[in-house]
Amino acid sequence: MTETFTALMIEDADGKPRAGFKTISLADLPDHDVLVEVAYSSLNYKDGLAVTGKSRIARKLPMVAGADLAGTVVESRSPDWRAGDKVVVNGWGMSETEWGGYSRFQRVKPQWLTRLPDAFSLEQAMAIGTAGYTSALCVNALEDWGMIKPDAGEVLVTGAAGGVGSVAVALLANRGYNVVASTGRPETHDYLSSLGAKGFIDRNTLTEKGGPLQKERWAGAVDTVGSTTLVNVLGQTVYGGAVAACGLAGGFDLPGTVMPHILRAVTLIGVDSVMAPHAKRDRAWATLAESLDPDALSRITQVEPLERVPELAAEILAGRIQGRVVVRIA
Ligand code: NDP
C-alpha cells in the first residue's frame, strides 16, 4: 500500500485557515473503523468556502478538506463493510469536524458510508456529490409535502446553472415538471435547456427587494440562493405552494415577512444534507437513480485533478462554475 500520499489540508496560519497540499501517511489519518481508498471527491460551494478560508467551515485544524468521497474499502473493523466494497460518503461533518475526501486514503466511521448505488459509477456518484444529492432531497421534500404534482404549474430553480441547481433542473424536468430556471448567466440557457428547462428568468429580477405578496407564479421552487431571492420567491409562490430551501449563495439572511405563509398558505421547507438520516439519503439516491439521465449528468460534469482545487474553489465562490466538478484523487 502507498506509504505516503497527498492531501489538501487546511491549517492554522497566524490564526487564519490556510489550505495547502501536504504529504501524509496512513498513520496520520483519524482512528475510524473503515479505511477507504478514495477515487474521486467533488467540489461543492462549501468546499469553496473551506479551501479559500472565506468562511470558517473547518472547525478543527488541521483538517483534510472535501465534503464528499467515493472509493473502495481497503480495511474494515466493522462487520458491515468489507475490503472491496464500493462506497460513497456525503457530509457527516467531513471538512468541518472530520477529515474529508481530498486525500488518497481516508478513515471514516462505518455509519457514514452509503453503498454505491448500482446505477452509478464512482465518478458519477461524485458528479452527483453533496450538491446533486441535496437536489434530490429538495425534490423529494416538495413531492412528500404532497401538494406539488407535475401538472401543478411552473416550478422555479434558483442558482440554476450551479451544481445543486443543474441537477435539480434535470431531475424535475425528467419527472415531468415545467421547470423555469433562474440564472444570472444568459450564456447557460442552451445548457439548461438541454437539461430540460422550459423557461428562464434573470436572477437580478429576484435580488431586488419586492413586496411581501407579488403576482402568484410558482407552484413550487428549489432555492439555492437564500436572502432577498428566497423572500421574493416565497412572495411569488401560488396559494398553497411550497419552496424547498437549501442554499445561501446570495446570503444567509431572510429579510421577509410572514405574509406568504399566513395569507397564501405557502410552505418553506428547510433541506439539510450533512446530517440527513440514512432513510432520507437512500430515498434521495433512489430518486437520482430513477430520474437522472446519464447523458444529462455527463453534460453537467467536468473532471479535474486535485491540484486544481484551490483555483476552482475561488471560481465556485465567484459563481463561475457551471454544473458540477468531480475531483480525481487516485
Ligand atoms: P454553485 O456555486 O455551484 O451554485 C450556486 C449558484 O448560485 C451559482 O452558480 C449562481 O447561479 C448562483 N449565485 C451565485 N452567487 C449568487 C448571488 N450573489 N446572487 C444570486 N445568485 C447567485 O454552488 P452549489 O450548487 O454547490 O451550492 C448551492 C448552494 O446550496 C450553496 O449556498 C451551498 O452552500 C448550498 N448547499 C446546501 C446544502 C445543504 O445541505 N443545505 C448542500 C449543498 C449545497 P447562476 O449563475 O445560475 O445565477
TrEMBL record:
Tell me which domain of life the UniProt entry assigns to the organism this sequence originates from.
Answer: Bacteria
Pfam families assigned to the protein according to its UniProt record, in alphabetical order:
ADH_N, ADH_zinc_N
Domain Enoyl reductase (ER): start-end pairs: 19-327
- GO molecular function terms attached to this record: acryloyl-CoA reductase (NADPH) activity
User: InterPro entries under this entry?
Assistant: Acrylyl-CoA_reductase_AcuI (IPR014188), ADH-like_C (IPR013149), ADH-like_N (IPR013154), ER (IPR020843), GroES-like_sf (IPR011032), NAD(P)-bd_dom_sf (IPR036291), Zn-ADH-like_protein (IPR051397)
Q: Which PANTHER family match?
A: ACRYLYL-COA REDUCTASE ACUI-RELATED, SHORT-CHAIN DEHYDROGENASE/REDUCTASE
Q: What is this protein called?
A: Alcohol dehydrogenase
Give the organism the record lists. Nitratireductor aestuarii
Q: What is the lineage of its organism?
A: Bacteria, Pseudomonadati, Pseudomonadota, Alphaproteobacteria, Hyphomicrobiales
